[in-house]
Specification:
Distance between the termini: 26 Å
Domain Transglycosylase SLT: 36-240
Shape: globular
Number of domains: 2
Signal peptide: 1-26
Order of helices and strands: HHHHHHHHEHHEHHHH
Protein name: Lytic murein transglycosylase
Strand order of the largest sheet: 1-2
Structural class: mainly alpha
Organism: Sinorhizobium kostiense
Number of helices: 14
Pfam families: SLT_2 (PF13406)
Largest sheet: 2 strands, antiparallel
CATH topology of the largest domain: Lysozyme
CATH architecture of the largest domain: Orthogonal Bundle
CATH class of the largest domain: Mainly Alpha
Number of strands: 2
């Protein structure tokens, strides 16, 4: 989920949980894998000097490697150039609606609890859940820390993903991210595909087990997604179609217009609006 617009609430939470580096990157960025190993060693030193436990740094980064699949995905996001109808067809919009209605009914108590707490109805949450991972059935196969480290090293968005890498280290340190975890190509985590920084900002321990488990706990993932939307201005009871107050919160989820519209359409069908 590479979609974050900072809010005052999110920034305050971030400052309280993570020490960001004085410099944006640990060493010279690169556009191929040749300098990656040296970059990682430089980043390890920087992270340790910026308040991350050396044992956490070593544990988290011991298995990272330059991820070419991540680079290919970052350079080739072609589906967002489709028309809305093409995008809906490619992403299986009708199938998500059909199954999403069943998921809403099956987990009615959970969605009612989330709406009571965050003001977000089931529809857009189920739409996001279905579109991102097929309701948790496929959360990605790339090594998460390698994906994030690769993009932090890559010159295209090094500053942005260096922050994501620091956030991932924080998650490892508190036991909310396994160093061997696998997910989507850009390092998105779990059933609704949060980038690490968004887990720090908006992650919720919905099931009360003491951890934010975006992978194995649908309750954590869905509550966190509702909290993300609330953090991006969601107004309880207001509409979420284009032109309505809560569409702006959906825009915070993903920068692509077709994705935003698809969430609104699928969500409304699931909510029965």
């Amino acid at each position: 989920m590479h979609r974050v617009k900072s809010t005052a609430l999110g920034l305050a939470a971030l400052i309280s949980t993570i020490v960001l580096p004085a410099a944006a990157s640990a060493a010279q960025c690169g556009n191929d894998g040749r300098g990656f190993s040296a970059w990682v060693e430089g980043f390890k030193r920087e992270a340790s000097s910026n308040g991350i436990s050396p044992s956490v740094v070593d544990q988290a980064l011991a298995g990272v490697s330059y991820n070419r699949a991540t680079i290919r995905a970052d350079r080739g996001q072609k589906s967002f150039k489709l028309s809305l109808d093409q995008f809906m067809q490619k992403r299986g919009g009708q199938a998500i609606i059909s199954r999403g209605r069943k998921m809403r009914a099956q987990h009615a108590k959970l969605f009612a609890s989330i709406e009571s707490r965050y003001g977000v109805p089931a529809g857009p949450l189920v739409a996001i859940w279905g579109m991102e991972t097929g309701f948790g059935s496929f959360m990605g196969k790339e090594h998460t820390l390698s994906a994030v480290a690769t993009l932090a090293y890559d010159c295209r968005r090094s500053d942005y993903f260096t922050e994501q890498l620091y956030a991932a280290l924080q998650l490892v340190g508190r036991g909310d991210l396994n160093p061997g975890a696998r997910g989507a190509a850009h390092g998105e985590i779990g059933q609704t595909q949060f980038l690490p920084l968004n887990v720090l900002k908006y992650g919720v321990d919905g099931d009360g087990d003491g951890h934010i488990d975006m992978v194995r706990s649908k309750t954590d993932a869905l509550a966190s997604t509702a909290n993300f939307l609330r953090g991006h201005g969601w107004q309880p009871g207001a509409g979420y179609q284009p032109g309505q107050p809560n569409f702006a919160a959906i825009q915070g989820w993903n920068a692509a217009s077709v994705y935003q519209q698809a969430i609104a359409i699928i969500g409304a069908e699931i909510d029965g609006d």
